[in-house]
Amino acid sequence: MSSDFESYEQDxxxxxxxITGRIGKVPKLVGDEKKQMVANVEKQLEEARELLEQxxxxxxxxxxxxxxxxxxxxxxxxxxxxxxxxxxxxxxxxYSDEVRNELLGDDGNSSENQRAxxxxxxxxxxxxxxxxxxxxxxxxxxxxIGQEMLENxxxxxxxxxxARERV
Length: 167
Description:
- This protein has 167 residues and is mostly helical.
- Helix content is 91%, strand content 0%.
- It contains four helices and no strands.
- The chain has helices at 2-25, 31-61, 64-104, 111-166.
- Helix 1 (2-25) runs parallel beside helix 3 and helix 2 (31-61) packs antiparallel against helix 3 (64-104).
- 8% of the residues are buried.
- This is Vesicle transport through interaction with t-SNAREs homolog 1A.
């Protein structure tokens, strides 16, 4: 039983070392290479989780007097796995920030460009607001003219009806 556990331990050690190396490479890669590396790390993390499950099953089969030592090893392996997953999450966040910056065309270090872009957008917004106000004024004037025309037509109708009655 313990020999199976030890072989799982060795596999886990090799796998975690590979994962650690690949996580370190993720932020340095670009494009499809980066996507491929992220997919590989996710696959290896899943393999490591499966190895931990196998190790837990082996620990359950170990006699009670020896189980304590193996249980403490399992706790440390689970902590290591949690640390790997957290590191991978951080590297993916950095990866997503880089993708966002790439899509937005932002260097991340050009505050002057950001300021100019912000001022340009503010100016556009003010122009649009002025156009909307002018459009609103035209709509109000058109409504007033329409109302006056309806009143004139109403008066003309009354005049025409009175003229008919006289005739």
